[in-house]
Structures are given as structure tokens and as C-alpha cells.
Amino acid sequence: MHPPQQPGDHPPRAARPASVPGARLPGREEHGSTVGRLAATVERLRTEVRAAHAAADGRALVELAKGILIERLTCGPAEAARQLAALADQAGMSQLELAADIINQASQDRLSQAAGEFLARTGRPAEAPADAPPSAAIRLRTAESAALAAADTQAVAASLLAYALGPLGATAVAIWAAGHDASLTLTGHAGFTAEEAGRWCYVPPGVATVARHALSERAAVWFPALSEADPPSIGTRDAACGRVAVPAGTGGRIVGVLEICWPHPVAPQPPQIQRQIEALAELCAHTLETRPVTGTRTDSALHRDLDELVDLADGLHDPALVLLPHLDADGNLTDFRIRHTNRRFVDPAGRPRTAVSGALLLEAYPMAAGDSNLFEAVERVYATGEPFRAERMTLTALVDQVPLAAVADISISRCGGSVLLLWRIEDEAARLASLLQHAQRLGRIGGFEENVLTGEVTWNRQLFTLHGLPPTARPVPLEDLPAHAHPDDAVALGRFLRTLMHHRRPASTAFRLHRPDGIIRHVRLVAEPVLDAHSRLLALRGAYQDISAQHWTEVALAATRDQLAHTEQESAERNRLALQLQHAIMPPARAPFNAPGLNIAVRYRPAETDHLVGGDWYDAVTLPSQQILLCVGDIAGHGIEAATSMIVLRNALRGLAVTGAGPAQLLTWLNIVAHHLTERITATVVCGLYDPVARTLRWARAGHLPPVLVSGDRAVTLPLLKGMLLGALADAVYEEGEVRLASGDTLLMFTDGLVERKGSLLQDSLDHLMATAKVPTVTLEQRLDRLLTHSRADTDDDTCLVGVQAV
Questions:
Q1: How far apart are the first and last CA of the chain?
Q2: Helix, strand, or coil here: 320?
Q3: Are 286 and 109 contacting, i.e. CB atoms less than 8 angstroms apart?
Q4: What is the pLDDT of residues 681-726, one digit of tens each?
Q5: Residue 417 burial by CB count (10 A; 0-12/13-18/19+): exposed, middle or buried?
Q6: pLDDT for 295-336, tens place per residue?
Q7: Could you tell me the keywords of this UniProt record (predicted)?
Q8: Is the CB of residue 184 less than 8 Å from the CB of residue 213?
Q9: Would you tell me which CATH number, out of the four given (3.10.450.350, 3.40.605.10, 3.30.450.20, 3.30.70.3040), belongs to the domain 430-546?
Q10: CATH number of 168-290
Q11: Dihedral sign, CA of 539, 545, 546, 547?
Q12: Region class of 336: left (phi > 0), else alpha (psi between -120 and 50), else beta
């Protein structure tokens, strides 16, 4: 596309093709030369036409500026032309630029604001080069002039692309007209092929396109890159193609959409560019109003539509309002005038039709702009043409400054230039009846009434469904009910009927109903007699309720309760056996154990709950070699399995210790037992052998906490020797250490139940243990009791504590 030319510019002449020397082929060269000259002539004529159009549009702006000067200077046309030329020379700009400035200052419309914002941000150069592109003011005013002179919207689209949007990088533009049913019609396009425009000539309501988004949101919608995930639209779907759609409307009503296409992704545009595009959309709205689409209603037709809408509203059974837009002096939508109220109109506040007809909507119903958003819904329908439906919307009217609310179903639609608002006030009796029907359906309840005098039986629909009968079947009287029930329930039904019909008291019963389809339902029946003033029986009324689901739930619940009780009994028995087994081997308290050169005391604290019976254990025994075996261990897990595993390892270690092997070797053998000869037991153990003669303790650990040595007023942990927990690997290596105990030294061996605390570091708990352990006590027993009393552990685990004091 060629850029527009300024007035006075001469179109370039078509270049004459150069002759090629050489031999000439008869006929073919003459034919080629003729076609070339014809193509050059056509191109030259096209260029001249474009230049003529640009010059004409430029002259239109200059003539309009001359008219403004004639009015302001009260001079003639010749003097105005001289003044315009002189002012242009003084300002150092072309007459076309000055004409655009004069028009902007005189009009102060949206185009002038957009051009002013652009100049305010970019600034006007002191001396523009001769070949500089036209300014924003010239482009916008030239586009406006060409659009106003255009014969149809097709020419308007071409003018917008050539003068205003092309310099912004756009390559195509489409102008859509919005129908009263929110459909879209392509009324003008430029840059798209005729085939593509033919495929997109009409978009039905509800199809989500780029233009539809702008129509629904009533705001400009930008798509930086139109990918497969974005809505479809006219033109080739290229992932790099950028789109923008701007609603075109005046007076609160959107009459169309301006859609612009770029061949590349569109980055966020500055505000001044957005203002220019919005100004062009407003120009399109003016074009669509003054040059309606073929088939659009004329003013007389619109008046006929309004009269037909009034007649239609009068024929409706629901209250209806016909609304017309109310514009202020600047043409902005501020309210809607109530043009007509139909014969069925009922005001929520009880006012007559004459008090509402002719008033503004917000004057008659000021609360419409409040919580219900009724006014916003009417405004949106008028703008976009999309109908609005809502159930149970609150309508509020002010009567003597007292708000009166009513619940109604709302329907709003646009017809031409008017809006039809319907509401159906919710009837309280109908609402309660609907609630009752839903309650009966959800509760599987069916009601009945039986006239004793005439024998007529009336059932509701739910009762036919419960009995498995079609609605046309004959209802079953109460006296015939035993024939439709399980034989075992005959006695209960007989008692029910005697209480109801002979004693004339309310009664209820439950029975099994045999339906014609062979299904048995558990039913609860409740009924009462209806008596006259003389206590004569007139009728029976009541309800059936299908309690089959409840019955089977109760049966399943009873079975579950029995199974749960049995499981709880088994679990309690297992825990009791585990606890007995544990206490038999390691009682919670044990008398002091005296060995050569040692005082030994032990404490065992079981878990607080029986179901957490653990596998903590200890042992202190004198071996045949007169060495003393000291050990503390912890089996992973709880329950009977942990207790039996503890017995296995404890007895295995005793047996292995008779061999005279050292602690490291004993743990190596015990690891083989745990890994290969058990059901994959894992455990931690600390094991020591005390020699009374040498007063030395050789010890090793398998993943367990090291012992604590208390000497005088000092308490320290022994070194962290190498050793993996038992049962984890088939082959494990254990490191052995040795410590000499002086007279009065105390060695503490314990399980993690003494120190573990949730949310605290293990080292903090060990520091607290050592601070408690170094406090002097009279006896070893008192020291162990003090450690258990001041322990901060909160894991509900077993605790084993062994104290050894050298004498």
C-alpha cells in the first residue's frame, strides 16, 4: 500500500522499461512489449488516482480550516487563504499541518484529544524534514475527512487503513455492525481478501470471536499474538498475528466493533496510541449510524418497532416495562425513560401505573443501582444486545424512604433502540408448594387422602412412584394394603388399621411393600383420622415414606458395629498378651542388682497406652567369666510383634555372650541373627562388658545413643562409635571402645524414650539429661528416679534406663 500524498505533490511517472539490444523474435516481442506498456499504464493510473484522493482529502482539511478562519476573522475566502499561508510560514509548518491544528483547536473532540496526547508525549520537532511522515493530527483528520466523504463503510475501512492505521503498522482492518440480537455483520474491510470477507460476512449470536469479546466486555480487547488458543476471526490464523478489537458506540449503545490486524505480535501500546484507536472507533460508530447496513431499519421502521413492542408488552401475562435511553447534553447515557408499563404491571411498592410511567428508571427505582445491579444489567443489554436472565433477583423500591423488597425472576432484552424489562414476582403460595414438592421428592415421601364416605382415594405423584404404579393406576385404599405387604407384616398393619379407623387415633407403622415390578421396599406409614364436629370419621390422610435406604444402612451399620466390636476385642486381647509378656520379662520395677565392684539399678517405664506396647529392653547378668553383661535395646514397632522380637534378641545376646567374645563381635553375630533368622527385625542396641578386676568397660553400639558417664560434678556422653542398627544389612562392622570407671563414677544406658521430644533437637534433650544427671544424689536409685521425673520426652514410647555405679 502506498503512503498518502500531500496536496500539490505530483504522482511519479511510471518508468519506461529499457529496451534490450539483440535479435528480435517476431510476434512474441511485440506482444510482450504491448502487455508491459499496458501494465505500466494501469499502475500509473492507480498511482494518480491515489494521489488525487490524498490531495482531495488534504484540500478538504485546508478548506475546513479556511472556513474556521473566515468565521473567526470575519473576512473573505481570499483573505482567509492568505492568513493560512502566512501563519504556516511563521510557524515553519505546511498548510496541511496548520489546518489540522486549527481544526483540533476548534472542535475539541476525541480526535483532537488523541492527537494532542500524542504531541504532548512526543513533542513537535523544530524543523521537520521535507520527507517526514505526516503527524498524528494530519493522519487522524485526513482519515476523518475521507470517512465523512466515503459512500459506504467499505470506503471508510480503506481510508482508516490508508491514513491512520497503516502508519501504525497495521495491515488490515474490519468494521463490524452489531445487530439487535448481538449478531455481527461485516460492513467494511481493507487488507483482507474478498474470499475471506465472504466467509466472515455474518457472525451469529453466541459465537466467541475477537470482535465478540469487545462487544461483550464493552472495552478494547488486545491480543498480542493470535494463537490457536485465542478466539477465531477474519483473516489467516497466524500465531504471530496481533489483533485489537474496539467497541464503536455512542450514547451508551454499541453499534459495532472496529477490528485491526497487525502482521506481527503487538506489544503493549502507549496510552496516546490507544486514544487514537478509540477515536477511530468513535468515527466508525458515526459512520454506522449515518450509513446503516443494508437491511437496517429506518427511523420510521424503528418507530413501528416501538409501537409493536408496546403492543407485545400489553399482551404479556407478566409485568413489563418498555425503556428508552436517556442521554445528557453531551450524548452520554445517564438513565432510561420508562416509556410504557403494560396492563399486568404490578409495582413492588404498590404504586399505580401512572406513578411509574414516564419517569426515569433510577428515579422510580433508585435501589436498582444498588446490590441487585439491575440498572447495570439493563445498561449492558442496551449496549451489547445480549439478553439477560436471572432468577430470584431482589427488587427494592423506596416508599416514604422505607425500602420494600420483593423477589422476582428478571428478563431483559433489546428491541431496536428500546429495552424490554419483564419481572415475575414470586408468589408465596406457589413458592411454598414448590418447596413442599422438593421436600417430598428428596425425602421420598408420598401423601394421600381417603374419603371414608365416598371411598375416593387421592394420591400425589410421589406416592405412585413409591408404589411402582403409573399415574393412571387406581390408588390402593388402606383396607387393601395388607394384600400388597409382606405376610409377616400383617399383624402390624392390622394393629395400625384398628387404631386409625376404630379407635380414631393417629397411628404409624413400618412394613415391607411388594410392588408390581417385584421390588420390595421398606415403608413407614403415618396417618391420622379427620373428624367432624360430632366426632364422626370423615376421611383419612397421611403419608408414606420409603425408608429402604435407611433400613439397609441400619442393617449394614449393625453388622459393622458387630465386626468392630469383635476387632476391638481381638486387639485388646493382643495388647493384653503383649503387655503381660513384656512385664513378665521386664517388670516396671526391679530390686537393685549387686555385682562384684558394681551397683546396678534399672528402671522400665512402659508406654502410657496399652496399644503402644513397645520393644524396649535391658539386661544385666554376670557371665561365667565373671564379667558383667550390660545392654539396652529398642525394637522398631509396637505390639505383640515388637514384644516377641525383643525376647528373641535378648535371649540370643545372652547365649552369644557365654562364648567370651567382645561387645563388637557380639553385635556382629546379633546382626546376623536379626537379618537372617528372624522376620527382618530392626533394632538399636548398646552393649557393654565390665571387668571387675581391671575396672574397665568395653562397649559397642548398633545405631543406639551412646551412654552418659557421670564423674563427680561432670556429665559427658561417650564417643559416638561406628555401628549400624541391627538387621538393616547382612554384613555390618561395629567399632569397640573402652572406658575405665573410677570409684563413684556412674554410667547411664537408656533408650530414646527418655530424651525424644517432638519439635526439639536431640542435642538439646541430651544437654537437659546431662544437666539433670550431674546433680548429686544419695543413692543410685534416687538418681534414676530423678531422671525419669525430670524427663521432657513426649513421644508416649517405652523407656529403659540402666545405671551402673563403680564402688
A1: 111
A2: strand
A3: no
A4: 899 999 999 999 999 999 999 999 999 999 988 999 999 999 999 9
A5: middle
A6: 444 555 556 677 788 888 888 888 899 999 888 887 788 899
A7: Hydrolase, Transcription, Transcription regulation
A8: no
A9: 3.30.450.20
A10: 3.30.450.40
A11: negative
A12: beta
Name the CATH topology of 586-806.
Answer: Phosphatase 2c; domain 1 (3.60.40)
Between CA 170 and CA 177, with CA 174 as vertex, the angle to 5 degrees is 150
- The three-class DSSP label of residue 206 is coil
In the numeric block, which cell numbers belong to residue 352?
A: 399505580
The C-alpha R_g of the chain, in whole angstroms, comes to: 50
3-class DSSP state of 188: strand
pLDDT at 579 over 50: yes
Q: Exposure of 589 by Cβ count < 10 A (0-12 exposed, 13-18 middle, 19+ buried)?
A: exposed
3-class state of residue 689 by DSSP: strand
Which amino acid does the sequence have at 384?
Answer: T
Give CA–CA dist 114/250, Å, rounded: 17
Cα dihedral 760→762→763→767 (10° resolution): 80
Helix (H) or strand (E) holding 337: strand 333-341
Give domain limits for the chain. 168-290, 299-426, 430-546, 586-806
Is residue 221 within 8 Å of 245, Cβ to Cβ? Answer: yes
Higher pLDDT, 653 or 304: 653
The residues facing 747 across adjacent strands are 709, 804
Q: Which CATH superfamily is domain 299-426 in?
A: PAS domain (3.30.450.20)
From residue 369, give the alpha-carbon distance in Å to each of 322, 357, 372: 18, 19, 7
Same fold, 168-290 and 586-806: no
What 8-state DSSP symbol labels residue 487?
G
| Cβ proximity of 157 and 190 under 8 Å | yes
Burial of 454 (0-12, 13-18, 19+ CB in 10 A): exposed
Q: How far apart are CA 380 and CA 360, in angstroms?
A: 17
pLDDT, one tens digit per residue, over 18-69 is 433 444 444 444 445 676 777 677 667 666 655 555 555 566 666 666 666 6
Q: Contact at 8 Å (CB) between 512 and 489?
A: yes
212: which residues sit within 8 A by CB, 6+ positions away?
184, 203, 231
Grid cell 443489554 is found at 381
